[in-house]
């Protein structure tokens, strides 16, 4: 305890040098903790958002280029029945949701374009609903036959509002084309750029327009235990031969999305380490200057019986304490940035960054990993580059001073 008090008093006697180390820790913490906190949030956001809005934990979809054949209708019905029976009876199924994603043509006024669309069961799919932020209106309810949910991007582009209608063209399973006016019941904010121009309709309306009836095979499933997903996929593939069955980690694009958090951490972490390594030159200079200025003190401490390690730790510890103070201030600054992000909608400044973040709203996850791990990283770099130098220089000065006594 006395050594700690002595260390702190030495820091206070040389405030400018201490301030330099504090600023080094502050700048390093701001960038490094920000990168870890952003990476942690992006990883969890992309994972939960992808599961809710695209795949579930596993899903049955339509293969690229697949065409229904009317003469195979009995086979499709048999596969769909097997699928429903298996999923509803499986003890690992939490929620089974009719679900389809594809591309369709729509017309808003005189504008006509191809758009992404999803067919969802809003009453069953609580995760989809909870991960979709409405800016106006509401989700299509059970009585809203041919209701549609559009995004704010879509609404601005085509000058649409709740209560307006758009014409959606849905092809039946066997090639005919149906057109229907859908009433806009709600407008949502897209949670990632790939949802910017997506519309979502009720699964019941899609099933009616696609004329699949009891041959409807497209579902996504939320499970209780993710470790059992591969076994469920294997079982389903045995009875559902015409439609791909995948766990959400089996898809290449999903794996790319899930890597976005790591990409963010590496990008900003690399920037932080460049800053810290540049400042590390100054930190080493401060430590060595302290050793040279206090060489009489070093000799006195050794003469009084302080071991070599204690003297070394005194000088290294002074810099480490200053670095820790700056680091904690940096963590506090990142916490304030997090509060600012939560208080208002802050969007990534560039479209490229929106895709990189996997979200159109900035947010941070401040947890033990994003706070402690960056400091350990900084400590290891400081230790690896400075500790032996401090040990060598303090012992060198001790030998010189004790020899002159």
What does this protein look like?
The chain is of the alpha+beta class. It is 57% helix and 18% strand. The chain folds into two domains: 2-49 and 259-403, no CATH class; 62-243, no CATH class. A six-stranded mixed β-barrel has the order 3-4-9-6-8-7. The chain has a four-stranded antiparallel β-sheet with strand order 2-10-1-11, with helices on both faces. Helix 2 (15-55) packs antiparallel against helix 13. The mean pLDDT is 86.
Q: Biggest sheet, in brief?
A: 6 strands, mixed, barrel
**Helical residues, percent:** 55-70%
Uncertain residue ranges: none
Q: Strand tally, please? A: 11
Helix count equals: 13
Residues in β-strands, percent: 15-25%
Short description:
The chain folds into 2 domains: 2-49 and 259-403, no CATH class; 62-243, no CATH class. 57% of the residues lie in helices and 18% in strands. The protein has helices at 2-13, 15-55, 73-89, 126-130, 152-158, 203-210, 229-239, 252-258, 260-293, 295-303, 308-343, 351-357, 368-403; strands at 58-60, 93-98, 100-108, 111-120, 133-137, 147-151, 165-171, 177-189, 198-202, 219-223, 245-247.
Layout of secondary structure:
Layout (H helix, E strand, L loop, with lengths): L1 H12 L1 H41 L2 E3 L12 H17 L3 E6 L1 E9 L2 E10 L5 H5 L2 E5 L9 E5 H7 L6 E7 L5 E13 L8 E5 H8 L8 E5 L5 H11 L5 E3 L4 H7 L1 H34 L1 H9 L4 H36 L7 H7 L10 H36 L2
Parallel strand pairs: 4-9, 6-8
Antiparallel strand pairs: 1-10, 1-11, 2-10, 3-4, 3-7, 5-8, 6-9, 7-8
Kindly list the characteristics that best describe this protein.
405 residues, four-stranded antiparallel β-sheet, alpha+beta, six-stranded mixed beta barrel, 2 domains
């Amino acid at each position: 305890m006395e050594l700690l008090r002595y260390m702190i008093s030495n820091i206070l006697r040389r405030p400018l040098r201490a301030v330099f180390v504090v600023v080094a820790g502050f700048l390093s913490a701001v960038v490094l903790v920000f990168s870890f906190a952003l990476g942690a949030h992006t990883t969890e956001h992309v994972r939960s958002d992808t599961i809710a809005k695209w795949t579930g934990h596993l899903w049955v979809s339509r293969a690229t280029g697949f065409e229904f054949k009317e003469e195979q209708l009995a086979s499709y019905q048999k596969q769909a029945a097997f699928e429903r029976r298996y999923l509803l009876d499986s003890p690992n199924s939490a929620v089974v949701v009719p679900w389809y994603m594809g591309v369709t043509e729509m017309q808003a006024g005189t504008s006509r374009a191809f758009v992404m669309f999803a067919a969802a069961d809003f009453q069953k799919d609580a995760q989809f609903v909870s991960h979709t932020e409405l800016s106006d209106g509401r989700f299509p309810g059970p009585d809203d036959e041919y209701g549609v949910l559009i995004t704010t991007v879509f609404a601005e582009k085509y000058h649409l509002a709740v209560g307006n209608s758009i014409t959606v063209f849905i092809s039946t399973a066997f090639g005919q084309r149906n057109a229907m006016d859908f009433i806009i019941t709600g407008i949502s904010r897209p949670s990632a750029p790939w949802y910017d121009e997506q519309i979502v309709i009720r699964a019941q309306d899609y099933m009616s327009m696609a004329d699949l009836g009891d041959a409807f095979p497209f579902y996504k499933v939320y499970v209780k235990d993710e470790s059992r997903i591969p076994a469920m996929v294997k079982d389903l593939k045995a009875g559902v031969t015409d439609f791909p069955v995948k766990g959400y980690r089996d898809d290449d694009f999903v794996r790319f999305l899930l890597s976005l958090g790591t990409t963010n951490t590496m990008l900003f972490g690399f920037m932080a380490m460049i800053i810290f390594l540049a400042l590390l030159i100054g930190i080493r200079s401060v430590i060595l200057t302290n050793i040279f200025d206090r060489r009489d003190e070093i000799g006195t401490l050794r003469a009084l019986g302080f071991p070599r390690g204690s003297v070394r730790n005194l000088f290294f510890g002074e810099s480490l304490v200053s670095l820790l103070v700056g680091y904690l201030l940096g963590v506090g600054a990142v916490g304030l940035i997090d509060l600012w992000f939560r208080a208002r909608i802050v969007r990534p400044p560039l479209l490229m960054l929106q895709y990189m973040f996997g979200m159109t709203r900035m947010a941070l996850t401040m947890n033990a990993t994003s706070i402690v791990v960056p400091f350990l990283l900084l400590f290891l770099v400081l230790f690896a580059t400075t500790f032996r130098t401090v040990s060598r220089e303090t012992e060198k000065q001790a030998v010189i001073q004790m020899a002159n006594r």
